[in-house]
Structures are given as structure tokens and as C-alpha cells.
Amino acid sequence: MLVIPAIDIRDGRCVRLHQGSYDEETVYFDNPVKMAKLWRVQNAQTLHVVDLDAARGEGAHNRAVIGSVCEALDIPVQLGGGIRSMEQIEAALDMGVYRVILGTAAVRTPSLVADAVDAFGPQRVVVGLDARDGEVRVQGWTEGSGLDAVAFAKDMEQQGVRRFIYTDISRDGTLDGPNIAAYRTLGRQLSSAKITASGGVGEHSDLLDVQTLEPYGVDSVIVGTALYENRFPCQQFWAWQDPEQVDLDAFSTAALREDSSPPHSPEAD
Questions:
Q1: What is the pLDDT of residues 51-64, one digit of tens each?
Q2: Which residues share a beta bridge with 6?
Q3: Quick one: fold of 2-242?
Q4: Which one of 8, 51, 168, 219 is the catalytic residue?
Q5: Which of 53, 130, 168, 219 is catalytic?
Q6: CA distance 117 to 115
Q7: Which end of the chain has less neighbouring CB within 10 Å, N or C?
Q8: What does pTM read for this prediction?
């Protein structure tokens, strides 16, 4: 089970939201590039980045720092937030992002998904399922869509989508545990697409619970707040308590394999 650290960026800073509420924001780090390198030092194999400002349609002014994150790392970076056209997809890929996540655009312009998958491949374009009470939410989770998450995912799979990032908004940032039942339900309805779980992981036992979902196509999990809050004992080895003293250019000795692509890279899926 691949654990993917999350970096949500708002106003150029690393933040976490509670249940998707922009009014309940915690700022954890002022420099996303340093934060990304810290996760890499802790042996991250892939990084999940969300541009929260762009997700709400407030511009993409975090794109420059996201490009710097891609340049600083030797691992794949996937990006979501405000990507709603072929031009924006291409721009993200050109700046070093290896995979783009379509959320609002997939709901409002389903044909874009099929066109993007055809142009860039199913490994480079995935759909973000952000749901509350089973309903897909859009516009940075601020608006309902009226669409059932499972039915929408089945339609997107027919459009060629081969990976979903499924976030239960009610669990996101709560540390209360992932919605195992929701992931199992979705996995049973999909034919070939894989699922990345997101939302609610608070401790090591939650990762073990997610691991039981592998028969349902869940092969990875995004973790945000729990990592920032140092909820895993292994983090004690990485001097998280004093991040300014960590050598951010000395990446983990658990090096990436040189003879194959990184986990969940375009060539590995």
C-alpha cells in the first residue's frame, strides 16, 4: 500500500482544512518546497499537491511554487485544483507534474475527460471523486453537483479513466479514520480502475484498515494531517520536531530503483 503525503497550498502556504471548510484552516508550513523536500527525506515515493486557491476559481497563483516543488524532487508529483481545460492540463504537465487530477471539470465537462485521456493517456489524467454523503462536490468542495459518486465513477470509467482519488470530505482532516465502507462499495462497482483513498487517516491502524481494501482495487492512500501532526512513531527518527535542522537535500537512503519507474508513475500503472 503506497502512502502518499499531501500538500495543500493556499496563499502560498501549506495548510490543512477540516472537512473541506476554508474557514477551518491550519497553517503548518510557510514554504511548500521545503515541506515537499521534508516528505521526500522521510522517504515519500509520490507527492499529492492541491492548489486550493485554484480549486475555488480564485486564480492559479500557486502554480509557480508548485513548479518549484516538481523541480526540487526526484519523485512524481500529482496535482489537483483548478485544472479545467486541455490547455491547463498541458501547462501542468509541461511544468513537471506527472499526473493531473480532474474534479470540477470532470463533472461539468465530461467530454474533457475523454479528450484528455485520449491525448495524454490514462496514466497522466485521473479523476478526483470528492464526496459528502455520497454526493460529488465541486468548486473546491464548496458546491454540490447532484451526482452520486459511484454512478459518476462508473460513467468516468467508461470514458477511459483508470484511477480515482476518492476523498470522503466528512472525514478529511478529522483524523477519525477513513470511510472503509465507501471505498469497498466503489471498488465493487468498478471493472478495472484503481482507487487512491483519501480522508480520515489518523494513525497506523487506519493504514492497516485501508490495506484490507486491496481486493477492491485500493492500492494507495493519501495522508495529510496525521503526518503534519506527527501521529506515526516512525516519524520520530526524522527529527520532525525541529524541521529547520533537517538536511533537506539528503533524501532517504531508501533510494528509488533506477531500473524501473517510480511507483504510480505513468509507466508503472
A1: 999 888 776 679 99
A2: 48
A3: TIM Barrel (3.20.20)
A4: 8
A5: 130
A6: 6
A7: N
A8: 0.88
